[in-house]
Amino acid sequence: MRKAQSISINTIVVAAIALIVLVVLIAIFGGRIRNFGEDSRSCQSQGGVGCFESCDSDTLVAAGNQPGIYTNLPGTDCEDQGENDKCCVLVVPTGG
Questions:
Q1: Are 40 and 76 in contact (CB under 8 A)?
Q2: Distance, first Cα to last Cα, the chain
Q3: pLDDT digits over 26-85, tens only?
Q4: Rounded CA gap, 87 and 44, in Å?
Q5: Cα–Cα distance, 30 to 28 (Å, whole number)
Q6: What angle do CA 26, 12, 6 make, to 5 degrees?
Q7: Is residue 74 helix, strand or coil?
Q8: Given this model, what pLDDT does residue 35 score?
Q9: How far apart are CA 38 and CA 10, in angstroms?
Q10: How much is the pTM?
Q11: Alpha-carbon 81 to chain mean position
């Protein structure tokens, strides 16, 4: 009978340790995943020069950016802003 009790106690101890490890892992990675999600939507983290109303080269050069061909990168935090809803990314620099 004693052997059956020790197996039961061992099982409980292993389950308790596994539960503690699981809670610690969720606490550590849960916060980091949330931060990663926020950072990955940022226009600048995606290589964009910023949020603008238009990705027209003249507009962006006037704002102090490098001359070149720009395009809109959808799915960034710029879409959450009113008029400046385009994340402009430099595709082809033209020098100058």
A1: no
A2: 87
A3: 877 776 665 555 667 788 888 899 999 999 988 898 988 999 999 999 988 888 877 778
A4: 8
A5: 6
A6: 155
A7: coil
A8: 55
A9: 42
A10: 0.56
A11: 18
> What's 94's DSSP letter?
-
Cα–Cα distance measured from residue 95 to residue 8, given in angstroms and rounded to the nearest whole number: 74
Structure tokens at 52: 């603008």
Check: CB of residue 95 under 8 Å from CB of residue 67. Answer: yes
Instruction: Record the tokens describing residue 21, joined without a space.
Output: 């490890």
Collapse the DSSP code of 6 into the 3-class scheme (helix H, G, I; strand E, B; otherwise coil) and give the result: helix
Residue given tokens 């109303």 in the structure block: 53
DSSP-based three-state secondary structure for 51? strand
Length, in residues, of the chain: 96
- Per residue, what are the HEC states of the chain? CHHHHHHHHHHHHHHHHHHHHHHHHHHHHHHHHHHHHHHHCCCHHHCCCEEECCCCHHHHHHCCCCCEEEEECCCCHHHHCCCCCEEEEEEEECCC
Rounded CA separation 85/79 (Å): 5
